[in-house]
Design brief:
60 strands, mainly beta, elongated, Jelly Rolls, 3 helices, 798 residues, 41% strand, eleven-stranded mixed β-sheet
């Protein structure tokens, strides 16, 4: 170190108030160069997990052209050499009265046992450098040993299975509440930690109890706060322990827990329509009981693994012996729950799954070995009713199924496949195979709660893989020889494809005018469904699709007065049309005007008619027949929609409005019969017509105004009364209409059900006889169009 003997210039420097000092190297000498260093002691960093150097510095570069620098260097051999330059400083740092704080991560040198750090300064002429508050520090495990003051149950593992021996060095100790502490709101103790350097640290610790244990002090009711210790009903942050009988009862009640453990002596029952919502896992100890009744839901937020055995009840629709129900298991594959376990009295050969494609062509049902086939999560199966059920279709019974196993939780993947159109255009049993026949996949809800099928279909993983519509089997009709064969076989009797309810983002269609459960976007636990694949891959189910409630829509045959669909929020205006006959045939379509819809096929908004050629009622776009049909917004009153239908028997049919959204309350919905050239406002009454057997794709259209009355005169109230009084209806052996003021152009007669009884046009007279209406003491409605398109409505009993 060179110390100049002559006078030199010292800048005014202060690193802060106090009695501590800083180190300074001055270089205000041009005679010899300055070369100084500040070197640390040797440091053993072999046991550190990180290492940091911090210091404050003021460096003033006096003349840029004169060599001068400060370097921060590290040696790993005790200072014999300094090959590691951490920083090389040639510009000003800080001010004389405001040092700059510098920090360096030296974690690259942990593990070194002979470590030194130096600050090296070189200058041939300059002001100098000052440093202060130098710290070299890191994290080092101390492996303390522990003793306790107070009652403590300590372990060395998170599962609390290996007791901790006091005084034994260890990095971590786990504390488990004692049987007494677990019932208290909080408990305290003092931890005495002796570090490896001999230092002793004492710490008073108070633990707030986030566990609640069931006592049943008052009753078996979960929602009674006095049945728990500490007192209070559990919430989503509470660990729950069940050592005895407890019942989650009520209607739509939500019970919460962070995690839940049913002990060997515990008995938990989740009653119908109620929900148990867990943040993490559920565990059932050996001999513990957890029963989930039909319509109840177990919902989980995180993807934690469950353990233990749960019993989940599901009640089917009313069935007779030859009915099938579409099932899916909410239990893990490892549970080993076989098909025969679900329905022991169903005969062999009546347990089926669906093969989407065979040899690249159309799919078909495949028989499963019921004794050895474990139900796979996410896969759909159909199972016939037990042999103990009646063979009479009018004598039905509800099948009470129970799934037994560990409930699924977290991500579930299910393969989806499609064929190569190998046999498109050929026919089996009289039905022509379409391009869609090798794309159908039978999937199922894999959870012990309902899922939101719109969330499932719109998940980023599933959007390119699945068509945006699902098809749910409701089975409102027994098999019949009158129903055509499906594309996959030739049978004596067939179910009608109209018993598949259609659901997507726009809404859903029902399968019966009365007596059928209306589908929603929520798929119950245990339910399987058809969906059309768009490619090959794995469909994904996850916890984000699970919902509470809505777990009782398993299509039991009950009359539903609820809205048939509960869909996601976006602008949509819809109406539903029914096609039916007097023999109970029924088919429904949905037409809606929706945000993001186009006039072409739209995934998730348009739903194809299930069953290809065999459906009854559908709307038509150039590429597809649709059960759910989305049209673009804004609504255009000039829009026209082609309807098609297939009649499997001849007779009288009826087209009518089932229900509609508010938007259409003030909007006419007109059905045009192209065969008879009749425009009929369905808002006034249903339309009745006769049809032969066959497929008719050009007979009907939906319009939103009646061209035959668009030029009606607008009359004052006085004029309207005068014209109405000038038209008389006489009812004797026939109905006679007489107009004393204007010529009659056309007359349409309806009964009160909206059935057209007689239609006359181009009359051009003032008196008309209606002689094709049978007299039966009923009310007849007459729509009389006069010259100048003035319309008069009359009612007569005949």
């Amino acid at each position: 170190v060179h110390i100049p003997s002559q006078q030199v210039w010292f800048p005014s420097i202060s690193s802060g108030f106090g009695t501590d000092n800083f180190a300074l190297s001055n270089a205000d000498s041009g005679i010899v160069h300055t070369e100084n260093e500040l070197v640390s002691a040797v440091v053993d960093a072999s046991t550190f997990t990180d290492l940091t150097l911090e210091l404050d510095m003021y460096f003033s570069r006096y003349v840029v052209g004169v060599p001068e620098f400060v370097s921060i260097e590290v040696s790993t051999n005790g200072g014999a050499s300094w090959p590691n330059v951490i920083d090389y400083i040639t510009d000003d740092v800080g001010y004389g009265t405001a040092f700059s704080h510098l920090t360096y991560d030296l974690s690259a040198f942990i593990g070194q046992s002979n470590l030194r750090v130096r600050i090296y300064y070189y200058s041939e002429w300059g002001d100098g450098v000052a440093v202060d508050d130098i710290q070299l520090y890191g994290t080092k495990p101390l492996n303390p040993s522990f003793t306790w003051t107070g009652t403590v149950d300590a372990y060395t593992d998170p599962g609390a299975t290996i007791p901790y021996v006091p005084g034994t060095p260890t990095s971590t100790v786990y504390i488990k509440p004692t049987a007494v502490q677990i019932l208290q709101p909080s408990f305290s103790f003092t931890a005495n930690a002796t570090l490896s350097n001999g230092c002793v640290i004492n710490k008073d610790i108070t633990i707030t109890n986030k566990t609640k244990s069931w006592t049943g002090a008052n009753s078996t009711d979960w929602s009674d706060p006095n049945n728990w210790l500490p007192l209070g009903i559990p919430d989503a942050n509470t660990c729950v322990v069940i050592p005895a009988q407890v019942i989650i009862t009520g209607t739509d009640y939500d019970a919460y827990a962070k995690n839940l453990n049913v002990l060997a002596t515990g008995d938990l029952e989740l009653q119908s329509s109620n929900n148990l919502i867990l943040t993490e896992w559920i565990g059932i100890d050996s001999n513990g009981i957890f029963n989930i009744r039909d319509g109840a839901s177990l919902v989980q937020i995180n993807d934690d693994a469950n353990f233990g055995i749960v019993n989940l009840d599901r009640d089917s629709q009313p069935m007779y012996r030859y009915d099938y129900t579409f099932w899916s298991s909410p239990m893990t594959l490892a549970s080993g729950f076989n098909l025969i376990d679900l329905s022991p009295n169903t005969p062999a050969g009546s347990f089926l799954s669906w093969q989407p494609t065979l040899a690249g062509g159309a799919g078909n049902w495949s028989s499963e070995n019921e004794a050895t086939t474990a139900m796979a999560p996410g896969k759909g199966y159909i199972i016939r009713a037990p042999n103990t059920f009646s063979t009479n279709p009018s004598t039905t019974s509800i099948f009470n199924a129970t799934f037994v196993g560990t409930p699924n939780n977290g991500d579930i993947s299910m393969p989806v496949s499609i064929g190569t159109d190998a046999n498109v255009g050929t026919s089996v049993g009289g039905s022509v195979i379409t391009a869609d026949a090798d794309q159908w996949n039978l999937l199922g809800n894999p959870y012990p709660s309902a899922i939101d099928v719109v969330s499932f279909l719109n998940h980023a993983n599933n959007t390119p893989l699945l068509d945006g519509t699902i098809y749910l089997w409701t089975h409102n009709s027994p098999p019949s020889s009158a129903n055509p064969d499906p594309f996959y076989g030739d049978y004596v009797e067939n179910y009608t494809p109209n018993d598949y309810a259609t659901v997507n983002s726009l809404g859903s269609t029902n399968t019966a005018a009365t007596g059928g459960q209306s589908p929603t976007q929520y798929i119950s636990s245990g339910q399987s469904f058809f969906v059309m694949g768009l490619g090959n891959g794995n469909a994904l189910f996850n916890n984000g699709m699970r919902v509470k409630n809505d777990n009782d829509n398993f299509f039991r045959n009950v009359v539903s007065t609820a809205s048939p669909s509960r869909t996601v929020d976006f602008e949509k205006h819809r109406f539903w049309l029914n096609l039916s006959n007097e023999n109970g045939a029924f088919s429904q379509i949905l037409i809606g005007y929706a945000e993001d819809a186009t006039e072409d096929w739209d995934r998730g908004l348009d739903g194809k008619a299930f069953g290809g050629n065999d459906v009854s009622f559908y709307s038509i776009i150039p590429t597809d027949n649709l059960r759910i049909h989305a049209r673009p917004l804004p609504f255009d009153g000039n829009d026209q929609i082609t309807l098609g239908f297939k009649a499997v028997v001849s007779g009288t049919y009826r087209i009518g409005i089932d229900h509609l959204d508010n938007f259409f309350n003030a909007q006419d919905i007109v059905l045009k019969d192209n065969e008879l050239n009749i425009f009929h406002n369905l808002k006034m009454a249903p339309y009745y017509f006769n049809s032969n057997i066959g497929t008719f794709n050009e007979r009907f259209e939906i319009m939103y105004s009646d061209p035959s009355v668009t030029n009606e005169q607008t009359l004052s109230a006085e004029e309207e009364l005068t014209i109405k009084n000038s038209v008389k209806v006489i009812s004797n052996n026939e109905i006679t209409v007489v107009s004393t003021n204007k010529t009659i152009n056309a007359i349409v007669a309806y009964d009160i059900l909206g059935r057209q009884l007689q239609y006359l046009e181009n009359i051009k007279t003032r008196q008309v006889h209606l002689n094709q209406i049978e007299k039966s003491n009923r009310i007849i409605l007459l729509k009389i169009t006069l010259e100048d398109n003035v319309v008069v409505t009359k009612k007569v009993e005949y």
